[in-house]
Amino acid sequence: MYPEKQTELRNWGFTPSAESLNGRLAMLGFALAIVIELLSGEGVLHFLRLI
How far is Cα 19 from Cα 16, in angstroms, rounded to an integer? Predict the structure, then answer.
């Protein structure tokens, strides 16, 4: 019913699951940057007072 779990504790490197997680986090960050710009009227760097 469920796929077998891998016997190794961790897979390091460019694995499909790591790439999927990285892509999802990048999309989340991009969406949050757009929301910050819409709500504050400033760019993200100005909002964080880096510029």
Answer: 5
